[in-house]
Amino acid sequence: MILLLTAVLSLMAPASVIAMQSHRFEFGEELINANWTGKGQLSMQKGKDGILLQTGNGTGMLTTTVGADIRPQSGVIIAASGVPSRFYFSWTTLNEPQNRSFTLPFGLTTGAAENQDFSLEGNWQTGSHEIAIILPPHTAIVLMNIELRDQNIFEQVLEPLRSFWVFDTYRPYSINFVWGPQIGWNTAERQHLFDVVPPVSLSGTLAMNVMLLVLMAAMYCIGVWRKTQKKQTLKRIGILLLFVWILFDARMGSEFLSWVWTDHTTYISAEHGQRQFRDRDAFYDFADFAAPFVIDRESYVFFAEYPWPYLGNMRYLTYPSIPGIDYLNDDTWVIYRRSDMGVDELGQMTVDGEAVSPQGKILGRFDDTSFIFRVSK
Amino acid sequence: MSILAFMIGVGITTLVGWLAVGAAQGRTPVLSRYERLAWGLTLGPTLGMFSVFLCHVLGLTKLNLTGFLAPQLFLIAILGIFGWKLGTLNFRGPKPYVSRQSHPRWMTIGIGLLCIWTAIKIIAGAYDLISVPTYWDDSFNNWNMRGKIFYMTEELQLEIPGGNGVIVTAGSVGSYPPTLPLMKTFVSVLRGAWHEPLVNSVHLVWFIGLLSVLYFTLRRSFDPLVSALGIWAIVSLPLILIHGNNPYADIFVAAHVLLAASALLALRKSHVSSDIQAWTKLFFLTLGLLVFTKNEALLLHVPLLCLAAVIFEIWHRKNLALKDHRKTLVTGLCIAVAFALPWLSFKWMNGLTFGNAKSVSGVSLTFNPVVLKAIWFHLTHEANWLLLPLVLPLALIAAGRRFWRSPEAVLGAFVLADIALQFMLFIMIQALATEAINQTGLSRGLLQVAPVAVLVIFSLWAMMTQETN
User: Which of A80, B225, B227, B368 is the most buried (most CB within 10 A)?
Assistant: First the structure.
């Protein structure tokens, strides 16, 4: 119904309203299409794919001005860095005296070009703006392009509807509560609905509750005004509630099925040794790998990247062998994802390069940072 | 092998439950043959494990094959003889249900599609449950861990070794009734190994039991199609679906609460003396076993169910001559006490705490208004219960006094009082307030009464539909 209404309205609207407006700022050689100014301790060097921005001991900033005709709801920055780096995107309204600034942080980790989506929803005022890329001291990134997306009316209606069907994943909190649908107003917001906990978007559950209350009040008032039988009004309200309940169930049931499907593809049907399970990744394959080495021990030393949930889970999986940190008495060390732990050339277990055990040997290695070590008798 | 162990284990406990329910009904059965089976399926594991627990703590048995089979087979023999003498061993029963009615074609197709959708969700969830490792905190630190310890040591251990000489004390998870872990141990003993899919699959028994009991309770007021809609409604609640297909204990408790509520409703609607007697005994049987499910049952649900029974059944029912049913009441109370007393004595003798993982003794009472915000968020911003938090109060308001004069009022009063008491405890007790704010424990109690809330909504719907017709 809403989609049909949107389609009809779209046909009636002028072409400029329906058209998608995307404002791309290119930084590749021969492609730069705006006047950018460097401020602070920023050095710039043009390259084939983008502009290399570097800072020394101070902060650097690359800025330009965008006109009042641009009113984006979201955007994307494509950039790369050889080492993990942080940078910021900021925008400031230029309508004195109430200039307002907003800043978003971004991180680059992979070394390859990374798309950094962001939402401007509610924070981009009318009027001209100054936009800027800000680099902290001692940072180097290659900036490839910035795109500001001004969604057309069709997309503005479609995005919240699409976001209703974006699912969360099976997480440790799912046994206690589920967020349910979240309403994102643009593509970027929709793509990151469950990235932060609690979600910052509008709760779809709340929106539905409020809409239902308004609709039910309206139906009741119309019933009174038209002198419809109360029973008839209640029946109509009941049908409305049933319809929304079914819709809501379709959303939540689909989310549950998506979790099962993910479990199926990433764990149940995956090759042993390649299995990834929810937020525990390869832990259960590791536990299978480690269990035979501790089966004949009453207790063993266990170190993981975090104590929770691995310690309790390991205790259950290897019981009656109990994991702990009694490294003075236990001879078997089970190490899971500890990049700071290893074995030196003398055969001693090390933490941050410092020997912490008598000599021994690695009985089995699961991956670069997970292995089983046993102290020699 | 696991399937065989599951079938034998669940078969034995179901037979125990089926016979016990038959014995409680007496010569005038009130449950249909399938309903009795659903009751047996749900209550059987609790009763069977209760007998195992009793023999073990009396020093008669270990938690091995003999220790599990002997008490249950003894129980089967005793109840079998009792049933044979009473004539309750046949697989027959009354058909106290609303007959099939004609519905518009679109409604039949619509509900049919919803049932298929529901079946897909349950099958998918069951597949996940038996295929993935034990993932949840409470499962590997409590329910499954304790079951595994019982299996390995063949003893009811109250303390869990934490490593480095550290012991998780008996007052912690050891204070929970051992029913659920014992059931896991039982099927493992039958299989001869601790097998993850097998020990997790037992949770399906309570989920199926819950759905069956809800269906048959609804069948007393609705035809099959509308009753099937009740199954869809309860499975549509996301937390019910998630808990139904995960190794947690709250569906297990919810199934028992629903049984007690169902018995209470039927008792409230009964006018024949023999029916009153049968439902009274079934109610007290469920109530006694409810104590042996999880700690909050003892502190929350049992007192409120008793209160509801007293207010609505004894005080509210004007035509009940108390003296006519004195014997039934005393018998019922004896049944409940017979189950509750051994476990409570055991707790007291071993210094086990009373309370849901947090001891109620020595708690400091405070007022935590921020809990109200957490509750509000839980009910209105999250999709845990779909539209239930909106529909239930609105339906109660719309139905008005008519509902409170109907037999179903007993369920409405119980659900509202139970939820109100839960919220009050979260607001007033500091340790629980943290659980509510973090939303780690807020949903559990609500989950346990959600099936009864669905029953209430269907009753309200029926009331309005009847008015419309």
Answer: B227
